[in-house]
Task: inverse folding
């Protein structure tokens, strides 16, 4: 697909699906510098993977697949990322009102706190669930079995109950 | 709290975000080289360190040989180890010094990575052997100086040296296989990334 798609088309795809990329980047990286590196890695992988894009799949499904795979492998590297490598200086995202980050609602903070304590694969499972994907779609995107997704969701539900039964609403 | 509540929070957050996030499209249009350059530089620097260390190892062997100069069973192997390390240092002088890869073309940068990958692939066989030879020539003296074990006067000590030699060889072979595999994989990935950036840049916006 790379041979027929141009840069403008690529940017259009990224623009239309910016929320997906943003959500994944922010869920996997807490460090702002590391986020920029992850964004960059995602862009390169998305561009590389465009040639293998199967139009039988929804574009968003393909996007989740690529971005989550990059995020999971980046997450593994994150701890080793203290080797003096410099991070990129610009983010691909511009926020309309930067100050809003600090006045995140208490509910949103709790949501992020909960997701942040999950491991890399469970994070992917919960993101896809919250984005409305079925167990089958989640299994397909992450390359794991449907029953594995079910088991992980069950554990996440239990963890959610444990977490929020001990904290006030 | 149930999963449905979490979903409601997520969607609420997502709706707010959709209105706030814009893309810095210029940044996407100028796919950056930083990650590839930084990755390559770290490999290059490790190799240059390795090359310079070869000279240090060679000097260590020479100094040790001078201390036991008339005990030829020790000094001759040490000099062989020193020569092997010196040869390694000289051979690796062809590794190019890091330069500002942001100022050269992507094709030139690809050539540098390719050249480095070929050099590493060629060097991996004898580099491992040289390090093994150096360790093996140094071990008898280390055993004598540290543990008082004169391996050439005592059969049990000699057997201990042989066992230690085997351990060193196995560890070094396994370690070098792993390291060179990582090198090759990462350098191939860097070349592939550059090829994609090149394709990306060639397409019209």
Result:
């Amino acid at each position: 697909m790379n041979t027929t798609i141009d840069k403008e088309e690529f940017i259009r795809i990224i623009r239309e699906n910016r929320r997906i990329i943003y959500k994944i980047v922010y869920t996997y990286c807490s460090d702002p510098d590391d986020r920029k590196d992850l964004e960059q890695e995602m862009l390169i992988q998305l561009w590389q993977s465009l040639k293998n894009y199967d139009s039988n799949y929804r574009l968003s499904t393909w996007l989740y697949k690529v971005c989550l795979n990059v995020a999971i492998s980046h997450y593994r590297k994150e701890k080793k990322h203290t080797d003096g490598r410099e991070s990129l200086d610009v983010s691909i995202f511009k926020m309309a009102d930067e100050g809003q980050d600090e006045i995140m609602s208490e509910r949103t903070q709790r949501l992020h706190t909960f997701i942040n304590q999950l491991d890399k694969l469970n994070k992917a499972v919960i993101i896809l669930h919250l984005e409305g994907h079925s167990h089958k779609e989640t299994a397909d995107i992450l390359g794991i079995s449907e029953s594995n997704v079910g088991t992980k969701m069950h554990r996440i539900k239990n963890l959610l109950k444990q977490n929020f039964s001990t904290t006030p609403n | 709290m149930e999963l449905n509540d979490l979903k409601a929070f997520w969607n609420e957050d997502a709706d707010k975000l959709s209105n706030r996030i814009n893309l810095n499209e210029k940044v996407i249009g100028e796919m950056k080289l930083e990650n590839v350059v930084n990755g390559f530089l770290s490999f290059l620097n490790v190799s240059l360190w390795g090359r310079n260390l070869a000279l240090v190892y060679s000097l260590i062997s020479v100094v040790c040989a001078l201390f036991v100069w008339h005990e030829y069973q020790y000094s001759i192997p040490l000099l062989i180890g020193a020569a092997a390390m010196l040869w390694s240092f000289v051979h690796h002088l062809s590794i190019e010094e890091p330069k500002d890869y942001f100022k050269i073309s992507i094709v030139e940068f690809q050539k540098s990575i390719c050249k480095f990958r070929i050099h590493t692939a060629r060097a991996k066989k004898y580099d491992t052997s040289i390090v093994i030879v150096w360790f093996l020539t140094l071990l008898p003296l280390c055993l004598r100086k540290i543990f008082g074990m004169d391996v050439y006067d005592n059969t049990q000590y000699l057997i201990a040296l042989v066992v230690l030699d085997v351990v060193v060889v196995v560890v070094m072979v396994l370690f070098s296989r792993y390291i060179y595999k990582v090198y090759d994989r990462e350098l191939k990935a860097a070349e592939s990334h550059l090829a994609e950036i090149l394709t990306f840049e060639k397409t019209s916006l």
In short: Chain B has one domain: 33-196.
